[in-house]
Every structure is written in C-alpha cells, then in structure tokens.
Design brief:
Serine Threonine Protein Phosphatase 5, Tetratricopeptide repeat
Length: about 160
C-alpha cells in the first residue's frame, strides 16, 4: 500500500487528537445494555482517555460494579474523579459517596460533603439527601469548611479539588 494512501486512510478514520471514529459512545451504551461489556469497555475507554466525561463516568461504573473488568474501587474513583473534574454531576455524587464510605479512597467527610454538595447544586436530589444526612454527623465548623471547599472547587472550575 502506498504510504500516502495509508496516511489518508488514517486521517479519514480518526478524529482530532487521534480518537478513532469507531469509538462511539452510543455503541458502547447499546453494548452495555446487551451486557456485552467487552465492547462497551472498548468504545468508552478510547473516548474516556480523550477526556469524554460521560465515558469516564461509565468506566467508573464498570469498575465499581465489576462489569467486564475486575472490580476495582480505586480505578472507579479515578474515572469518577476525572469526570467530576469536568462538572459531571453524577460522578461528583458517586465520588462523594465513595469518600463518605471510604470506598476506593480514604474516608473523608469533608471531601464527601464537598462533592455531594456540588452534585446537589447541579440538581442531583439523592446528593442533597446524602449531604443533609452527612451534615447531621459533622460539626458546624466542618460543615462551613466543606462548604468553603465546594465554593473554591466550583470557582476553580473543578480543577485541583
């Protein structure tokens, strides 16, 4: 095959940043619904590595539940953290829940409150309930600190939280 044809074909079959066109979120979702986790993983991993927060969230779910991969709470938290850092409310809620329970991350009520509070501010009703339940177990000073952490996190567009 001529090198120019090979380069042309590679260009045609890739998106910017080198993500193959064949990486398709909906194809991954359809595969997951069929319990074809290998295909879902293949589709979403490519997109997640390029920064797609929905794919990152779904990989977090796969690792948390052990669907098509070895169950790995640390890996789930890593994918949720990446998506949460892009404003994905579902990932923010689940990451907060993981901090609350010390699953895949060290247990930390301040970080738990921060993340569920952020998720609640984006309309996740279950996050609001979890935040309120957690607040009952925290000191008023810790609640204020967690709220300040959440405000700083949002002001920094979720970077470095």
């Amino acid at each position: 095959m001529n090198i120019y044809i090979a380069v042309l074909m590679l260009t045609i079959f890739t998106l910017p940043f080198g993500t193959p066109v064949l990486a398709d979120f909906q194809k991954g979702l359809d595969a997951y619904d069929r319990e074809d986790y290998a295909t879902a993983l293949k589709e979403w991993k490519l997109l997640a590595e390029e920064g797609d927060p929905s794919s990152q969230y779904n990989l977090g779910v796969m690792y948390r539940m052990g669907k098509g991969v070895a169950q790995d709470d640390k890996e789930a938290a890593r994918w949720y953290r990446l998506a949460a850092g892009q404003g994905d409310a579902g990932s923010q809620f689940l990451l907060g829940s993981m901090y609350l329970n010390g699953i895949g991350v060290p247990q930390n009520n301040l970080r738990a409150h921060m993340w569920v509070n952020i998720a609640a501010s984006q309309g996740i009703e279950a996050a609001a309930g979890e935040r309120d339940n957690l607040a009952r177990e925290m000191t008023p000073e810790d609640i204020v600190l967690a709220q300040q952490m959440a405000q700083k996190c949002v002001a920094k567009n979720y970077k470095g939280c």
